[in-house]
Amino acid sequence: MKGRLHGISQAVAGITFIVAAALCQGAESLDSIIIDAGYDQQTKIAVVPFRAGPEFGDREPLSDIIGFDLARSGQFAPTERGNMLSFPAERAEVFFRDWRILGVEYLVVGRVTAEFNGDVSVSYELYDVTNGRAMAEERLTAPLAKWRDLGHTIADVVFEAITGVRGAFSTRILYVLAQNPGTEYARYRLEMADSDGARARTLLTSDEPIMSPSWSPDAQRAAYVTFETGRPVIALQNVATGERELLPHFPGINGSPIFSPDGRSLAVVLSRDGNPEIYLMNLADYRLRQITRHHGIDTEPSWTPDGRSLIFTSDRGGRPQIYQVELATNFVERLTFEGRYNARARLLPDGVHLVFVHRRDGTDHIAWQDLERNDLRVLTETALDESPSLAPNGTMLIYATQDQGRGILAVVSIDGRVKYRLPSSSGDVREPAWSPFIDGLKSAF
Amino acid sequence: MLKRQIGFITLLVAAALLVGCQTPEPTPEPAPPTDTRPISTPPPTPEPPTFNDNMEPYYPGTTKLLPRVFYFELDKAVIDQADLEALETHARVLMDNPRRRVMVEGHCDERGTREYNLALGERRSDAVSSFLKAAGVPASRIETVSYGEERPEDPGHTEAAWSRNRRAVMIYR
């Protein structure tokens, strides 16, 4: 862990350990999360182990999933189990004084029961310890396979009840796992995992590179680039069923696929006419509309939240910088001016803040820019940082970086103060894509 | 190397046969061998092959391999002056061997973003392809593909590794 340790590191250390053990069940899952930095003032919350029958004894405790989700936000310091004075599972067993003594501000208690049809039911309450009021209470029922989703769903509710910001713990991430890259045994996998890196599963395995995964707005499909034909081709894949199609492709680059906010079209980069340009592909009839027309490299499109413009990378000014093109008029405007390399931008849901790769002193970092005030701030200090992807609530972003020569994923809060890493022991992990909001209990995956 | 040895051995055998001819031994020979090779003159020195077994071309008339990998500066797709002679020779090899085709791969180092690098890699393969076309090679015999930074030659993260990875590679078919 790094020097800038705050309360979170001590509070979370115990939990990290527990979660690490639990995550090992999926061999390909990302390893335990290493939290590098959090806020100075963290909300103290106690998530008491939920009461559950012995039939759930070998399951990852829901209280661990919830507590760790909250800890990862950097805003919460969950109380370690060993420091709890009692283990209430319902209102009648709660003595708020026990929790005030510990300085705990919020308390989550719950209990798990098995349904006759094999489903699992969880009842839980969130209390404000200062006044004893219930801020949230709910009974959730889901198939046993949704065990972790139950935990993430409760964490989402607790996070929103306390912070007012919608929780994004039920989301998933897509990423590329590269094994033995640079050798003849290279193998590439497109992976999908929980937002905490657990429950990874492989959507595609190939001996040829896989690039640029992104999500459809309904989180049902992934778009990505595959070299399985020996050339870059764009594929769409249903993440639940695995059903897949290769889109019509052209000579040269077929790359950078990214769904429009309405899900009806895909912004792509094609170099079929000899030069990389941005096009829109209508997914109903595959018809193309050319958006950019410039002899420079135009690539890495992403959408403004209103769907009216694209943000993209272009070296039309001599060096890669971020531009915006309005789709109705094809009017192009340059957005970044600081530095000699700015690329692969994504807009926050507010449409005003931009995150992108920014080169400083020859090293690539993730940076943030307020488009109204035009101030640029570097969020990461590591080297070879790339592929920033925003959580749908705009509070955090996940990106790829290097750690001891290995590609890992890392997360940083938009204000740069919360940081954690998701390494993998399975190979180089890269190109993370954070999903839109998902109803984890209803999703088909 | 193997071919050179075979050529050398052929010469040795021919020399041995010639020596045999000159020996004034009157002993009647058994039935002449069915070998129909003329033994009165040595075979002509074989023309060095154009390609080795891996379809890698030699400098014409030599046994020295032509470089097939050309390196680039960071974020640049400009062919190094020092590579022009080798590329001209490739153009000559292609024109002298009209059944041969070439695939030009473009690659980048890991710095910079992946999709931008895919485009930059294409610029590098295009630079080589354009040179060959300008030198007279029909476009129909040149293909290009960019792998961006996805297929490093050297998986390291040092300046030395990066300089090896910023490259265009010619693969004959």
The CATH topology of the largest domain in chain B is given as 60s Ribosomal Protein L30, Chain: A
Termini of chain A, distance in Å? 34 Å
Query: What name goes with the CATH superfamily of the largest domain in chain A?
Result: TolB, C-terminal domain
Evaluate the radius of gyration of chain B.
24 Å
What's the number of extended β-strand segments of chain B? 4
Strand proportion of chain B:
5-15%
Intertermini distance of chain B: 21 Å
Sheet with most strands: strand arrangement of chain A: 1-29-28-27-26
Give the key terms.
heterodimer, A: 445 residues, mainly beta, Rossmann fold, Neuraminidase, 2 domains, five-stranded antiparallel beta sheet, 11% helix, 41% strand, B: 173 residues, alpha+beta, 60s Ribosomal Protein L30, Chain: A, four-stranded mixed beta sheet, 4 strands, elongated
Structural overview:
The complex is a heterodimer of chains A (445) and B (173). In chain A, 11% of the residues lie in helices and 41% in strands. With 445 residues, chain A is mainly beta. Chain A has two domains: 7-163, 3-Layer(aba) Sandwich (Rossmann fold), CATH 3.40.50; 172-434, TolB, C-terminal domain (Neuraminidase). A five-stranded antiparallel sheet of chain A has the order 1-29-28-27-26. In chain A, strands 3-2-4-5-6 form a five-stranded mixed sheet. Chain A has a four-stranded antiparallel sheet with strand order 9-8-7-30, with no helix packed on it. In chain A, α1 (7-23) packs across α2 (62-72). Chain A is globular, with a radius of gyration of 23 Å. Chain B has 173 residues and is α+β, with helices and mostly antiparallel strands. Chain B has helices spanning 2-22, 84-96, 114-134, 159-165; strands at 69-71, 102-107, 142-148, 167-172. In chain B, strands 1-4-2-3 form a four-stranded mixed sheet. In chain B, β2 (102-107), α3 (114-134) and β3 form a beta-alpha-beta unit. In chain B, α2 crosses α3 (114-134). The longest helix of chain B is centred in the first third of the chain and has 21 residues, at 2-22. Chain B is elongated. Mean pLDDT of chain B is 83; it is low at 1-25. Classes of the chains: A mainly beta (445), B alpha+beta (173). The A-B interface holds A 181-183, 186, 209, 211-212, 227, 230-232, 252-253, 255-256, 269, 271, 274, 276, 297, 299-300, 313, 315, 319-320, 341, 343-344, 357, 359, 364, 384, 386-387, 402, 405, 431 and B 75, 110-116, 118-120, 122-123, 126, 144-148, 150-157.
